[in-house]
Amino acid sequence: MKRSIERLVAQMTLEEKAGMCSGGDFWHLKGVERLGIPAVMVSDGPHGLRKQEQEGDHLGVNDSIRAVCFPTACATAASFDTGLLETLGRVLGAECRAQGVGVLLGPALNIKRSPLCGRNFEYFSEDPYLAGQLAAAQIKGIQSQGVGASPKHFAANNQEYHRLTCSAQIDPRTLREIYLAPFEAAVKAARPWTVMCSYNKINGEQVSESKALLTDILRGEWGFDGYVMSDWGAVNDRVKGLCAGLDLEMPASGGSTDRQIAAAVREGRLPEAVLDRAVGRILDVIFRYADGQGAAEFDLQAHHELAVRMARECAVLLKNEGGVLPLGQRTRVAFVGEFAQKPRFQGGGSSHINAFRAESAWEAARGRYEVQYARGFSAGGDEADEALMREAVELAAGCGAAVVFAGLPDSFECEGYDRSHMRLPGCQNELIRRVAAVQPNTVVVLHNGSPVELPWADEVPAILELYLAGQGAGRAAVELLFGEANPCGKLAETFPLRVQDNPSYLNFPGNGDTVEYREGVFVGYRYYDKKEAPVRFAFGHGLSYTSFAYSGLRADKTAVRDDEPVTVRLEVTNTGARAGKEIVQLYVADCTGAEVRPEKELKGFVKLELEPGETKTAEFVLDRRSFAWYDPQRGSWTCASGRYGLLAGASSRDIRQRVEIELTCTDPKPYVVDANSRYDDLLAQPALREFMLRLLEKEYPPAPPAESGAARAAITPEMQQRMDREAPLRSLRSFKGYTQEQLDGLIARLNAMLR
Question: Which residue, 242, 251, 323, 352, is most buried by CB atoms nearer than 10 A?
Answer without folding.
Answer: 242
